[in-house]
Amino acid sequence: MLILNDILTFIVPRCPICEDVTSGVHYGVRTCESCKLFFKRTVQLDREASYSCIRSYDCMVNVQTRAWCKLCRFNKCLNAGMNTRLVKKLMIDPENRPRQLIS
Ligand SMILES: [Zn+2]
Ligand SMILES: [Zn+2]
């Protein structure tokens, strides 16, 4: 006999990146809240270039290990189909500030 929790575990889709419970579709893929925020921050702050893998780019990413290697986690996000273009970039460059219209 199945217990309710077993049924829920079976029905609720798991995050394709870290296997945590999902909270909805984020940037094109159904992921958990943690991976959503991680992906958003990485893209908005252009952090991808600062990530590096100390192993051979094949780190295991799951709920326990997802914080270990940001590069492998980010690659897994991209492989899952998350779209960087769906993330609104922060305008941190003062040159990009909207200019006031001169009348
Ligand atoms: Zn996740
Ligand atoms: Zn890695």
Protein described:
The chain is mainly alpha-helical and 103 residues long. The chain has a single domain (13-87), classed as Erythroid Transcription Factor GATA-1, Chain A. Helix content is 30%, strand content 6%. It is built from 3 helices and 2 strands. It has helices at residues 4-11, 33-44, 70-80, and strands at 24-26, 29-31. Strands 1-2 form a two-stranded antiparallel ribbon. Strand 1 and strand 2 (29-31) form a beta hairpin. It is globular. One zinc ion is lined by residues 15, 17-18, 20, 31-32, 34-35.
Summarize the structure.
This protein is mainly alpha-helical. It has helices at 4-11, 33-44, 70-80, and strands at 24-26, 29-31. It has a two-stranded antiparallel ribbon with strand order 1-2.
Q: Main sheet?
A: 2 strands, antiparallel
Helix tally equals 3
Derived from helix and strand composition plus strand pairing, the structural class reads mainly alpha
CATH architecture level-2 label = 2-Layer Sandwich
Number of domains: 1
Helix content bin: 25-40%
Average predicted confidence as pLDDT: 87
CATH level 4 superfamily: Erythroid Transcription Factor GATA-1, subunit A
Which overall shape is indicated by the principal axes computed on the Cα atoms? globular
Strand share of the residues? 5-15%
Hetero ligands: zinc ion
Keywords: DNA-binding, Metal-binding, Nucleus, Receptor, Transcription, Transcription regulation, Zinc, Zinc-finger
GO molecular function, one term: nuclear receptor activity
Subcellular location: Nucleus
Pfam families: zf-C4
